[in-house]
Design goal:
Strand content: under 5%
Number of helices: 7
Radius of gyration: 21 Å
Distance between the termini: 32 Å
Oligomer: single chain
Shape: flat
Largest sheet: none
């Protein structure tokens, strides 16, 4: 096992610990709150910007950014509260340990996907600029497994990195 493999495996440890501490529901709600918050803020920030500009008389760009952030934070806060409520319901039903175990598994999945996407992005850059000699990765076991995992889950991401990052 190469040093890079050990480093990549070590990066899973904080995620597993957080998964055990937070549990599945809080982690999924956290991920969803970012996505839903961005979508809702993108949809309603222009409308709120127009209203705020009439009231405050400030510049459009600054007002838009403030409105986007406020909507995003409001959605994230509401979703976090819902996640905590659902988690409490599971704890009352004495399923807290099961939710924490699933949280650790979800964390392993998301960490593997994130590392795999970073590896795909790195390989896209490395194809153009050869930052690191590709032969250095031949003996690695975890590095190609993470790359292949990300490519299997999100095949378009690897294509994107190969076509658009490798300039």
């Amino acid at each position: 096992m190469e040093v890079l493999d050990i480093v990549l495996l070590a990066l899973f440890i904080p995620g597993i610990i957080m998964g055990l501490v937070k549990g599945l529901i809080v982690q999924v709600v956290s991920l969803l709150s970012v996505v839903v918050g961005a979508i809702v803020a993108g949809r309603f920030a222009p409308d709120l910007t127009q209203i705020a500009m009439m009231q405050l008389g400030s510049g459009e760009r600054a007002t838009y950014v403030i409105c986007f952030i406020l909507i995003f934070l409001a959605v994230a806060l509401v979703m976090a509260l819902v996640g905590k409520l659902i988690t409490k319901l599971f704890k009352i039903a004495t399923l807290g340990w099961f939710i924490r175990l699933l949280g650790a598994l979800f964390s392993v999945f998301t960490t593997a996907l994130l590392l795999g996407l970073l590896i795909c992005a790195f390989e896209g850059l490395n194809a153009s600029w050869e930052i690191v000699d590709p032969a250095r990765f031949e003996n690695c076991k975890v590095y190609p497994a993470l790359r292949d995992f990300a490519s299997a889950i999100l095949p378009q991401a690897r294509i994107f990195f190969e076509q658009w990052i490798a300039v």
